[in-house]
Amino acid sequence: SFAPWPSPVASSIPTRHPRATPTRLPPSPTSTPAPARVRPFVRLSGHRSIVSDLAFGPDGRIVASVAANPYNPAADNTLRLWDLRHQSQRWQMQVPAWADRPYVLAFSPDGRALALGYADRIYLLDPLDGRLIQTLTNPGDTVFSVAFSPNGRRLAVGSWERRIQMWDLGSGRLVRTLSGSLGPVDHLQFSADGSVLISASAA
After folding, report:
1. pLDDT in tens, 30-73
2. Are 135 and 94 spatial neighbours (Cβ–Cβ below 8 Å)?
3. What angle do CA 202, 187, 47 make, to 5 degrees?
């Protein structure tokens, strides 16, 4: 944490002393403070390429990460689930290395499902062992972002094609498509009561 900003120091400069030196004042608030040194709480190692996305489980005890790179022969191309308490990996699974396609992750609010989206698919996995629970196909659209509703019943999916699709997870059906975004839908977030969905795009 940063210390409180210092208060200005008042100084009295004798007018009869030609060599008097004014007291040095603290830097103005417009100056950039020195960066704080960050110490890692846990260091998780295993991926051999750039990590595309990360997601915390709702209890804060697990983290999912995905890394894939078709241009790097040494890339591991895996989805991994990490246990922060024991600082270890629970499981991993191979994922296809799609060219120029993002990988996105999101946990359901109850922590019973992990959504992995890439290309035109969304896979719902069991965080306990990576078992496939459900597959949602997004034909014609490239998945760019995903977000669960607060009650976990619906999944919003943003695409490169500037659309947002709303899926009912109970039936596995697409219930609504929203268009009009000015660019690829990079981020999605529901309000706490689920009544509002906010999206962000690069344009």
Report:
1. 666 677 776 667 778 888 888 889 999 999 999 999 988 877 88
2. no
3. 100
Residue 191 has, within 13 A of its CA and on its CB side, a CA count of 6
SS3 for 160?
coil
The token pair at 142 is 């490239």
Q: Which of 172, 59, 166 is nearest to 109 (CA)?
A: 59
DSSP string, 47-73: --S-EEEEEE-TTSSEEEEEE--TT-T
Residue 70 has, within 13 A of its CA and on its CB side, a CA count of: 8
Global pTM? 0.77
* Residue 61 exposure: Cα atoms within 13 Å on the Cβ side: 7
